[in-house]
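Service request form, structural biology core

Requester: graduate student, group of Dr. S.
Request type: structure prediction, single chain
Budget code: on file
Notes: please return the result as structure tokens.

Sequence provided:
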Amino acid sequence: MAEEETTPVEKKSSKMLMMIIIIVLFLIIIIGGIVTVLLMSDDEEMPTNNRQMQEMNTPKRNIFKGPSAQYNNSRQLRDIGILYPLDTFTVNLKSDAGRRYLKVTMSLELEGEELSLELDAKSPVIRDRIIRILTSKMLEEISSKKGKQKVSQQIIDVLNAMISDGTIRGIYFTEFIIQ
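Core staff response, request fulfilled:
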């Protein structure tokens, strides 16, 4: 029996088909990467016109408008109140598929010097409330910038409801490790 010989036209079309398949696969990988980056990025809006672009590039003066203002713009160091460092928290995150740990070290920004005395006296209760908040979170809830802001605001709200000698203006994470 004689082997079938391929003609030059068949070889050319075979090479062309392989080249098309490789290009299509390459495009699928690139598009998949772009979609992944877009989905994983923070939910910040992209500027749609020249005015929005100009506003983004213009430095802003920050006027403190409340506890969450610290996340929108950087305040001057001289505007930051007394910082009250807390011990490190290591907690299990709420998870269905496997164990996730969160290690967090933070400082509370206080309004009023007398508040640090109250926080010292109520330290175990404060740690308990923060641990309860952190362990109620899933990885997806705290891994984004917005998620960290929401957790910070929740901690501020809970602690401010408990204290009487001042208020907590903000939270600054000095360590935030998810494993």
